[in-house]
Design goal:
Helices cover 43% and strands 27% of the residues. Helix 1 packs antiparallel against helix 3. It has helices spanning 3-16, 43-63, 102-121; strands at residues 20-27, 32-36, 71-76, 79-86, 90-97. The two termini are 18 Å apart. Strands 2-1-5-4-3 form a five-stranded antiparallel sheet, with helices on both faces.
Length: 128
Amino acid sequence: MDHEALTGEMRGLRDQIPGITDTALAAVDGLLIAADTEDGIEPNGLAALAAASLGLARRTAGATGRGALRRTVAYGSSGCAAVYAVADTALMVVLGDEGMDIERLHLESQPVLKRVEAILSGKKRRGK
């Protein structure tokens, strides 16, 4: 697995979207794959919490007949945490401050998620 490419994708997203403070990739079981976090954020704990959040959201979506879960967002008084499904095996969590444009994040993250999925599966993708 190309950890450098994964970290590059996360940093690229951070560069595109003002307000992103931290990003991490994890397996759905909560094991950290890669992280681009600032001081004060413990990446292993973030990965575990994001996996738990994704798991609950997936069960809720399934139980209510809403289809396959794509993302979940938690809003706090100082920003938000968005957790995106990466196929069925991984997730990407993005933390942002209160100034982050969440709708832009949802749009800009889609090609990043596809490239991350390709990296995780070992498939090569052309272009960004």
